[in-house]
Amino acid sequence: MDISEQTFLILSALADQPRHGYALVTEVDEMTNGRIRLRAGTLYGALDRLVTQGLIAPDHDEVEKGRLRRFYTLTDAGADAIRAESQRMATAVRLAEERLNKRAARNAPRLGTIG
Amino acid sequence: MSPDMSPLERRYRRLLRLLPATHRSARGEELLGLLLDLDDGRRHPSWHETLNIVALAIRLRLTTPVTTTALTTGLTALLVAAGTQPAGHTVDLFTGAVLATDMSAIIAGWPQLAALGLLPLAPLIAWLCGATRTALTLQAIFLTVTVGWFVIDVLGGAGLGINPGQQLFAYAPPTLTLALLAVAARERWAAPRPRPFWWALVPLGILAWKGTGEWGRHGVYVPDAVPTVIGVLTAATVAVGAAFALRRHRPAVIVGVGLTGFVAGWLIPDPLLSNTAMRHFDGQPLPLAILIMVIAATVAGISRLTRRLKPEARALPPDEPVLP
Predict the structure, then answer these.
(1) Given an 8 Å threshold on Cβ–Cβ distance, is B38 in contact with A44?
(2) A11: domain CATH number?
(3) How many CB pairs under 8 A join A and B?
(4) In terms of C-beta distances under 8 Å and separation of at least 24 residues, what long-range contacts does B117-121 make, across chains too?
(5) What is the mean pLDDT, run by run of 10 residues, along chain B of 324 residues?
(6) Residue B150 distance to chain A (closest CA, Å)
(7) ipTM of predicted complex
């Protein structure tokens, strides 16, 4: 299953412990150094979709400062999805680095040549 | 709303009323809590979050079962009306629209004429067969060819005298069809049921368009009949729309509002309707599409009302004897 970067980051943020929506937004913000800031509507839609796909599940609810916070946890299917996507990306990174090394070797000055 | 509520919470609660009621009751408090956390300390919702919630509301409302049914019915009605029009006119060409002295030219070019008449049926057939992406691709090709042809005509000087507004209005049905097919492909919608009803509309639609040709030729086109037909169609559309808006109420209320809507639609002044219709809808597939939608919505509405009025028939499983 192909998953988007946003989905991958949400699932990764839930990998170590259950989190609620606001914690997910701050975690993704930290993971990407501020590059991706999830909006409430976007996160709501993504969580809804991921629950339907069985990749995450509601864990428990808490009320803090009069605000309802629903915690979500990663399911085994979600963990498998992150693992598969990580392996795919690692393979792609390795192939790209191999080619970059070949390019660097081709452009490196040869012994005995001028300039 | 309680008096202790902050202005931000009050404004966000008002904004969340855009969401469908089912989502609001199931997860509204969760979403509200998240919004208050994200905009903590503000008095007004931020523009980013507001627009994001509006986009979410549109997306959720587009995918409720009722909206999905209405949109797939409208899409199929448009495809039937627009797809059968060229075929109907082609049938009319071979069955009386052309003088006998000119028929030899028509007969000589029958393969091309038949192809031009039948090809526009392809998106409709693909949609009814469940091949939504194929229907989308075909519709995109047809729209591109049609618009491209028009652009070439305009650039070549053949576009003089063309009313741009009229032309844009003419492209509205195929463009709307393309947009709906794109949403259908993304949301994996299917053609509405019952399928035999929609398949039967294919030959009936072709005959209807053939009929419009006959109507014009044999002097049956009576100017006085047109406002009546348009008035009935408008009144029926208003009636169905009003009944649909109150579909969750009691059957008596639905029927009463529907009849009131019919009378209200009938009271719309004839000259306004006729002039608008004849200026914009002459030769367009939209009136036929609206008629098909009204028929489909009426049949579906009557079916639902009948089911609601007979709850005991629903409670009994089939072929089970009634125990004393």
Answers:
(1) no
(2) 1.10.10.10
(3) 49
(4) B117/B86, B117/B87, B117/B89, B117/B90, B117/B91, B118/B86, B118/B87, B118/B90, B119/B86, B120/B82, B120/B83, B120/B85, B120/B86, B120/B87, B121/B83, B121/B84, B121/B87, B121/B202
(5) 78 92 89 90 89 90 82 90 88 77 76 85 93 94 87 75 70 88 89 87 87 64 62 80 80 84 76 60 71 80 75 49 44
(6) 40
(7) 0.82
